[in-house]
Design brief:
With 143 residues, the protein is mainly alpha-helical. The protein has 5 helices and 4 strands; from the N terminus they run H-E-E-E-H-E-H-H-H. The protein has one domain (2-141). 42% of the residues lie in helices and 7% in strands. Strand 2 (19-20) and strand 3 (26-27) form a beta hairpin.
Length: 143
Amino acid sequence: LIDQARAAGMTIVGVTVGRRDDSGALRKLNDEELAEAEEKLGGRIINVPLMAGFDMDAPEGEQNPTEMLSGITLKNWQEEKLDWERIERCRAAGVARFTGSAATVMAEIDKLVPEGANVFFAHTMAGGIPKIKAFLAIANRIY
């Protein structure tokens, strides 16, 4: 898709999903990461983390869903129960983070797109399920 955009002479603008720091907090790309990503893309990267999942989001002082799932094993997964009220608080925190980031990204895009220009948006990355070992094994057993 990117190669075709280049061949068509389109201006390419990317957005990062960000990176996680050692504590798991979502962050912008650092200068080195940003330069490398822009070189690979062949265009500008709007350096606002736009990760859409909420598996690592939580209200201050609470566990995120990935942490809540960390005790699940292949032996206990059928008996474990999730606290859906806590999951909902995490979802709300993730939605608030993403919505704010998306508004910032769109404001940056508005500055880059001339009046009357055609714009093509494409999502070129895919996500997955929380990185819990038991989930991967369980998912492989579900048809």
